[in-house]
Amino acid sequence: MSITQIPGILAAHATNEQGGTGCTVIICPAGAVGAVDVRGGAPATRETDLLRPEETVQTLHAVVLSGGSAYGLAASCGAAEELERAGIGLDVGVGIVPIVSGACLFDLAVGDAHTRPTMEDGAQAVRRALAEQSVEPAQRAPLLRGNVGAGTGCSVGKLMGPTRAMKAGLGEHVSQSGTLICGAVTAVNACGDIVDPTTRTPLAGCLSEDGTHLTRTTDTLLEDVATMPLDAKRTNTTISCVVTNAKLTKAQATKVAQMAADAYAHAIDPTHTTNDGDTIFVMATGEAEAPVDVVGALAVRTLEQAIVDAAQSATSAYGLRAACDL
Fold first, then answer.
1. CATH class of the structural domain 3-325
2. pTM of the predicted model, to two decimals?
């Protein structure tokens, strides 16, 4: 099952393979209860304050995950304008305003540094997603994974410099427990290594000096603190959107986002560094009754597997090897 096949949810990409960047949109045309958790030290985000429980806006229409660093926020503007043209948004009396939150990752060091997701990219991704709106959820095409959308220029394992980094990409996973559904989409562009959340076995990350095997970034960091080069300042960030059919308040959705951040700690090592802008959005469509702790626990498991998928679905590109090559 893909996130596109969750009732009430649409998703699509815009990919610039030559430029090494792109964006991914996740849309709930009817509006979802939204929340966000920002753990990284260098975030590039849009409309995160209004997702706080005490703020008055109760509906989130779309989340945009984008490359391009702060320049990539333009994709969210394009997405918002396209949603307005489609009649999707919050009625403010004199028109409608789509509530679109977004986050960007730094992929300027991959592909062409002067190519970033644009307003047209955001609009194009929305058009592609809305084209599936009349199709029954079970019949919708699954979301593409790997070197697409926000995952196009993703890389991991960069604390020892770009020559020892590896390619990652965009991953997704959907889990179900009874009537409760939870899906996650993530673009993994971390400083650290991607590890199996159960065995802690490295899957992608910092290569050895001869490029033959994976090392453990945290072990290297702790063994040689004084000479650690830390060449990857602010060039990272893992950004994710968790979608659930659970009925949640904004406060409960915020707790789910906070719990979901544990997936980063389980599957990325190290994570939430000063060089990462790690961000997790939650969209809750409100069909299924479930305790908030159950939703949070399922979100953690789902996002863990999406992060793993981001490493395993990526293919070699831009001079970087991928997990499938090892």
1. alpha beta
2. 0.95
